[in-house]
Amino acid sequence: MPARDDDGRGCLYKLVVQNFKSYAGYLEIGPFKDFTCVIGPNGSGKSNLMDAISFVVGVTATTLRGSRIADFRSNLSTASASPTSVSLFYRGPEKGSGKFDEIQFTRTITSRDTSEYKIDNKKVDEKEYQRRLKSIGLLVKSRNFLVFQNEVEAVAQKTPKQLTELLERISGSEDLKQQYEELMEQKSAASQTAVAVYKRSLLVSNEKKQCKEQVKEANTYEKMLNDLNDLKTHHVLFDLYQIEKQIESHATEAETLGEKLEECSKNCKAVSNAADKKSKKKAEKQKEWSVIDKKVDDLEKKVKSIQRQDLLKLSTEISSRKADITKNSEEMKNSKEKLQEMTQKLKSEEKERDDLEAALKEIESKSKKRGIDLVGEQVSEYNQLKSKAFQMSHKAKTALERTERADQEAKRQLETLEVSMKRCQQRIDHLSSKIKDESAVNSKNLNKLQGLNEEKHKCSSELTDVTAKLKDEYARKKVLVNENRELQEKIREASFDHHQNQRDEQFKIRLEHLSSSFPGIRGRVMDLCKVRQRQHELAMAITMEGNMDAVVIDKEETARRCIEHLKEQKAPAMTFLPLDTLTAKPPDERLRMIQGAKLALDCIEYEKSVEKAMWYVTGNTVLVPTLQDAKNLAYQSQSVGSLRCKVVSHDGALISKSGTMTGGDNSHLQSKAQRWQANELDKLREKLEKCSREQESVSKTIEVLERAKFGLEKKLSENSAELTAAQRLKEIHDIDQKNLEKEVNIHKKQLETLAPNIQHMKREIDSQRKTLEEDRAALDKIHDMVYRDFCKKMGIKSIAEFEGGSLKEQREVQSRINDLTQQKAKVEGVIAKSKSNYSAYVKLLEDKKQETKKLEEEIASLKSKEESSKKKMKEAMDAKEEELRKQKAIKEEIDEIEKEYKEITKVLKKANEDREEISRQLEKAEAQMQRLRDKRNGVFEQCKMDEIEIPTRKKKDGSTDDDEEDNMDIEAGHSQTAKEIRQEVLQSRIDFSKLPREHKRDLGEKDQEKIRSDLEEKQKKINETLQTMNPNMKAHEQLKEIEERYEAVQQELSSAKQNSQDLTKQFEDVKQKRCELFNKCFDHVKGCIDEIYKELTCDPTKVEQSVGGSAYLTLNNQEEPYMDGIKYDTIPPGKRFMDMTHLSGGEKTVAALALLFAINSYCPAPFIVLDEVDAALDARNVAKVTRYIQSRRHEQQCVIISLKERFYEKADGLVGICRDITGGHSNVFTLDLSMYEDGIQ
């Protein structure tokens, strides 16, 4: 009969497996009872049944005993062609008349190694499959009905967080987890958004007030800016007028010098032609000399070749042959001596052979004279008698051997008993002494307890003081470590390239030398300024790129002298910025008003005296944080629309005034940028060294305090341990003394038993000795009877005398003859080998004689070749001397031509010097014009940058000066004639009519400087006023924009507040629902777990276990319990409280089962399967668990896989599993025990 359903619950009716693991073919398992036990030997397939149930309910392959789903196929040959599937037949509550609602769940492994799910043979998807299982109480995700092998203790040892996750799955609150977390994030984001919008509304309101004030200031600013532009135009016209006059003067001078240079060049050309003719003649003679020199070299090589390849080779071969002859002579001498030695040795060996033959003959003659030896029939008769004696005495000899073994065994047992008796007596003496010592220990322990308490109090006080000091030192160390890290970071940032540093040092040395020789040198640009913020260093390096190493100097004349000096010294070039002639204007004030940008000049610190140079190197350049900001400013911003400026980003990107963009690898500029920090490097290193010393000192102090703390903690720990041990020792002293007395009594009883055994063993040994003597006498009697006639015939008293005398001598003689025969054979072998060696040495001697004769003939042939080679070498040396004489004559002609060439060269040098002097004067005049022209172009560029409009006159063709500006830009280094420069000046169409008449007169330097100073002073006053104003020129447009933004922000703020309130309400609803689900499950489990644990641990037969143990659950977080852990503790009966990890294996198993049963009672599955959960349980605990399961079997069906008899004694049904011996697959047998309930009870 299947499991009963009287209580209205469902059950597992049966299981059908097909080719699943060890189950080959089609197999039905069941029907299963209320309490079914699965039994079988190890390896029979019990756990495979557990895997089959887990597989059919949808547990993944990785959770089971397999890495992939294909591992569940049966590997038996009979199952290879059939599919693999498992079907579970579930029966619902009985409807009456024995009818049930039966559901069939089937899971099949397809040919593609995937799962296919069916319900009542209808294919469904996995989601529907799991839903139907959940509807009958099977929660696959939490596995509330499956307890696998070796997982029971793991349940009890789950961490608090893992227990919380388990209850979440059981209670269903886990389904709300994702929604809970999403709403929490949305709520937090909405709150942050509302706060951010509110802050923006405040900012926009403040901007609105400020913008209204800026509108008023902008109107005043525009008026003063127009006045400033008029002054700048006046200043530019004055500078251009004076430059044009100076260019015209230098052009006239350059025309005169050009005519002189042309005449001097013609003279140099004529002298140069004469020098070329002499040079060609000299080259021809040198060519003849080279040909002869080549012939001399060839002859020299030929002589050396004859010496090296012929003479040296022949000489070496002759020496080699002579050495071979000498060597052969020595070997022949040694061979003769060896032959003499071998002859003597051969004679000695032949004599030894003769001696051995004589000794052998003598022994044979002596052995013939002996009359006692056995020969022929006597030996045969002796052997027959010996065989007969062995047969007749076999029984007696066997008895003798048996008696000897019994005697040895008795002696061994006697020795063992005596040793045991001795050890027992020693143990009694030792225990008696130990009992006496125990009484003295108790009194000493009392004194020790008092001392330990005093020492513990002292250590605690010292430890508190050390801990306080250590805390202070750690705080100090943390401060020093942070300071050290900051200093290291600063040093790393301040460091720059080593090679760049070397070049920088060399540059400084040259500059110091110039400063000492020429007064008025201020220094390099990069040394005269300092970047205010480190983030601007790279951008400033790009701004100044070509002028960082430029030298600022007071006067232009000093710069010229420095350049001449550098040329004379052949030193690298330097760039000079003379303050007296340098054309530079202050940057446009409007650039300071650009939001998000900073004027390059404002990013550096410098002295007022070099301000003009700083204007020149920075110009109208602004710095912005990023490349995108640079693009917005250069291409899109309306504030820069009317200004022409260079924009540089902090990361090194550059946008020029014309709009071209430059970027890429700026590593070479990065090292230059870091040079501003080089002066601070030494100070930083000193600070770092000081900080490191302090840190080291603090570390040592901490180390000392740590050791002291560790020592005190160790001492305190040891003190506590000793104190506990002393108290424990006092408690167990009496128990130990009683145990010792019991052990003494046991050993005394053992002594009383051992004494009689020893006496008995001694008597048995005496008896064995008598038997041994009798057996030996009987054996001798048999031997005398067999050999009696043979002894009379041989004339000996007994066979023992014969076997010990005559026969022994005969064997020794035979052994001696054999030894001599072997020695003789060895000597004869040695003689044969010596004769063979002698013949070999005779043949070797004859071969050496023939070889020596052949070598003498070869020496004679080589000497003839040597004389021929010497004759060839003499002929080559005579030819070489003749060529050397010709070479000497040509060399004298070359020297005469060289002398004439030097005279012509001197004349040419003087002419070139005159031409170079005129050329230098011309270059100087052109350089002056170029400088003035560059100065003029600089004024034009500055005007473009500052957006100053220069007034121009209309030309005949109608074009203006705007079309000529490009024609006036001539690159540096491009030379022009005086006539071309004059034409350029005449073509200039600048309108100077607005310039006052007094400014057009011929003015000296002082008058010009005075006029410039007046104009600059007026501009300065206006600039100072403008700098204090700093208006916003877009205030009107911005005010309108801000008002629109203010309205939009207000609407956004209202929407954000409403969104935050809605999300908060949704979150609180989900939170409340999740808490209710979780608390409902927790309260149920908490309420029933103690009762279940008591029932599993109670034992009515024992007083201390009659009530059972205690189990309880504790929440770490009462408000949101699912956020923290759950603490599970048990107290086994008769024991004190201890952590779960300290319980025994059986106690952990019982605690785990109690938890599993309690959880299962909240959401009970129709059945539960336990796989060998009793592995760590003893028989008593197995009985308790069995009793509990049996009492609940009508509430929930239970299937247990076990090897314990207690389980299947109390079960309603048995499922037996065993291995088929022939096929290797698992067989299943089902037995219904319900009919035997009365008998079992």
UniProtKB/TrEMBL annotation:
Keywords: Cell cycle, Cell division, Coiled coil, Mitosis, Nucleus
Biased composition (Basic and acidic residues): 930-952
Bilayer-spanning residue ranges: none
Keyword presence, Cell cycle: yes
SMART domains listed in its UniProt record: SMC_hinge
Biased composition (Acidic residues): 960-969
Protein's UniProt keywords contain Coiled coil: yes
Chain spans, region Disordered: 930-978
Annotated Ig-like domain residues: 572-662
Entry GO CC: chloroplast; cohesin complex; nucleus
GO terms classed as biological process: cell division; sister chromatid cohesion
Localization per record: Nucleus; Plastid, Chloroplast
GO MF annotation list: ATP binding; ATP hydrolysis activity; DNA binding
Annotated coiled-coil segments of the chain: 163-231, 322-369, 400-434, 470-497, 681-708, 1008-1073
InterPro entries, sorted: Ig-like_dom, P-loop_NTPase, RecF/RecN/SMC_N, SMC, SMC_hinge, SMC_hinge_sf
Family to which the UniProt record says this protein belongs: Belongs to the SMC family.
Protein name stated in the entry: Structural maintenance of chromosomes protein
Species this protein is from: Guillardia theta (strain CCMP2712)
Encoding gene, per UniProt annotation: Smc1
